[in-house]
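Students often ask what a 'structure token' actually looks like in practice. Rather than answer in the abstract, let us consider starch synthase, a protein of 275 residues. Its sequence is given first.
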Amino acid sequence: MSVDTKKRVLIVANELSPYLEFSEFAQILNQLAIKTFEAGIEVRVIMPRFGVINERRHKLHEVVRLSGINIIIDKDDYPLIIKVASLPNARLQVYFMDNDDYFKRKLVFRDENDEFFEDNADRMVFFCKSALETVKKFGWPPNLIHCHGWMTSLVPLFLKTAYKKEPVFGFTKTLYTAQADQFKEKLSDQFVRKALISNEIKEKDLEIFKDRTNTALTLGGAKYADVVVMGDRKMPAKITDEVKPSRSKKVLAFDPAWVEDVTSLLDLYKSLTDS
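Now compare that with the structural description of the same chain:
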């Protein structure tokens, strides 16, 4: 029986150039994905199909063979539509998680009056669960999952609880990008309940998320990830004070050189997929 020696990296992000950019890390991720592919590592990207992403311009189309997954959030079923596009100037695919209730609107996180969407918590849980269910459907075991952006901060927790017995994630490490706060509001007070997607998750596991702030999400993602990368030049003191390197966790400070050259991040990917 042949042994599968392929190295695989999955990037789960709520921003990626050229589709959507909230920070300069969107471009860094673009170049990192391309360079990783060129280094001979299989790469796939998963992100939300926000309504502001132009399907015609970016040549998105539905992946019918992957459709038919229903994502259950707090006992309600939401159909998952999976769309795909090829990253421009690269031979790698970006998969977009779509659902009419959550992503059809032509806005990202705020309405026309600049009010934070009440269902952003639900959208986040839907996206994180959708990403992992899609990987299961692929049957594509990633060595590394790089979670970027506050919308992905539940993924490291889910992998260590609800999905810990899934063979496809049996050898997966997680890397989380911590960023400066991108919103000042709190997620809805139903967030913790809706994040309990499995009996494998206990309320105490979500204790770090309980404040429902952007900072709380970042601290939660960082707690459950194996490696943390600081994704902004200036990070809030609460993040830098609480997210420290240890024997079980590696933490990298932001390097401005990444904007022009992602070699050190690629080396990190290589080390994490080799170990």
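One point worth highlighting: The chain has one domain: 8-274. Ask yourself how you might have guessed this from the sequence alone, and why that guess would often be unreliable.
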